[in-house]
């Protein structure tokens, strides 16, 4: 899983989105994880699995 600072992500958002197509990208602020960018396809899959687990 790739990690990038929030400032780096802001400067290179297109590259972050491209990287998220293949694996989640963790965005860190002050060295701590703050967010994760995933592809829309992966997010849809996560939602489907969560729905199935909670039904």
Properties at a glance:
55 residues, alpha+beta, YefM-like fold, 3 strands, 27% strand, elongated
Describe this structure in words.
With 55 residues, the protein is of the alpha+beta class. The chain has a single domain, classed as YefM-like fold, CATH 3.40.1620. Helix content is 53%, strand content 27%. It is built from 3 helices and 3 strands, in the order E-H-H-E-E-H. Strands 1-2-3 form a 3-stranded mixed beta sheet. A hairpin with a 2-residue loop joins strand 2 and strand 3. The longest helix is centred in the last third of the chain and has 15 residues. It is elongated. The N and C termini lie far apart (30 Å). The relative contact order is 0.18. The mean pLDDT is 97.
Overall number of structural domains: 1
Number of helical segments with 4 or more residues: 3
Name the CATH architecture. 3-Layer(aba) Sandwich
| Strand order of the biggest β-sheet | 1-2-3
CATH superfamily: YefM-like domain
Summarize the biggest pleated sheet: 3 strands, mixed
Low-confidence regions: none
* CATH topology tier name: YefM-like fold
- Strand portion, in percent? 25-35%
Q: Give, in order, the helices and strands.
A: EHHEEH
């Amino acid at each position: 899983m790739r990690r990038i600072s929030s400032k780096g992500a802001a400067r290179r958002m297109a590259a972050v989105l491209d990287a998220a197509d293949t694996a989640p990208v963790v965005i860190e602020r002050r060295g701590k994880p703050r967010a994760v960018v995933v592809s829309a396809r992966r997010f849809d899959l996560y939602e489907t699995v969560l729905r199935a687990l909670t039904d």
